[in-house]
Amino acid sequence: MSANLEAKKLIVEEIKNKISSAKSIAFVDYRGLTVKEDFKMRKAFREAGGEYKVYKNRLMLRALNELGITGCDKFLEGTTAVAFSNKDEVAIPKILLETAKETQKLQVKFGIVDGKAIDANAIETLAKLPSKETLVAMLLGLLQTPARNTVCVLSAPARGLVTALSEVAKK
To answer: pTM to 2 decimals?
Structure first.
């Protein structure tokens, strides 16, 4: 086998490993981005625990097909980069949409979440969700509310008695 073929097989394996370990993945058309804009976006990805790479479309398509993710060939045309989110499902889509708004150049093609291909609208919806930590905090707040209300109701008669005794003591 030629060295070029072996190198391509290694790249396909690398892509498959990254896809398998990522929480969410977004494929974008980066045409027109300046080096400065690209550098700023890559830095934001690294800070959010993600990675942004450019691979050949054929190699990405081969890796996706080997993983059983189909229906992506129509999106993998032209300039395509892939953003992997390794920590948080919504962090990378948020960064992509912020960059798209700022530059008016970046365009989300499609994404992958839980091993299933999703369209650009689903990526946008995902980006609008609060982070996992915020959602957990909201859930805990909702779970605390009934307990807090029960404590207030149960302590109201005792509080009323203390207030009444205090007023009697003042007279």
So the answer is: 0.73
